[in-house]
Amino acid sequence: MTRRFLVTGRVQGVGFRWFVARLAQREALGGFVRNLPDGRVEVLASGEQVALERLLAALREGPPHAQVAGVSVSDEPAAPTSTRFEIR
């Protein structure tokens, strides 16, 4: 299963991408996290549904200095083929 998450709020410049990458690696998720020009953070993650649900819960909280205003979620048809997760 693959999902795209778009996180809004104060989520750039606060260690958000590193926070997501560590969690994704711990959950054996493949995909990436990146900052978007409009201030959001995009996460594309592929793996077990329960791991994706844990990721979503963590995204809603964020790291200590973040202020998450919202997380939108969409299912994606294409899945990364490995459990490698990268920061872009």
Short description:
This protein is an alpha+beta fold.
Overall mean pLDDT stands at 93
> Stretches where pLDDT falls below 50 for ≥5 residues?
none
Cα-to-Cα separation, first versus last residue: 21 Å
Number of strands: 5
Helix content: 25-40%
Task: Report the sheet-strand fraction.
Answer: 35-45%
Q: What characteristic shape results from the CA principal axes?
A: globular
SSE ordering:
EHEEHEE
Main sheet specs: 5 strands, mixed
Strand order of the largest sheet: 4-1-3-2-5
Q: What is the CA-based Rg, rounded?
A: 12 Å
Instruction: Please report the number of helical segments.
Output: 2
Structural class: alpha+beta
What order do the helices and strands come in, and which of them pair?
Blueprint: E1 2-10, H1 16-26, E2 30-35, E3 41-46, H2 49-61, E4 67-76, E5 85-87
Parallel strand pairs: 2-5
Antiparallel strand pairs: 1-3, 1-4, 2-3
Keywords, separated by commas or semicolons:
88 residues, alpha+beta, five-stranded mixed β-sheet, 2 helices, 5 strands
What does this structure look like?
The chain has two helices and five strands, in the order βαββαββ. The chain is an alpha+beta fold and about 90 residues long. The protein has a five-stranded mixed beta sheet with strand order 4-1-3-2-5, with helices on one face. About 30% of the residues are buried.
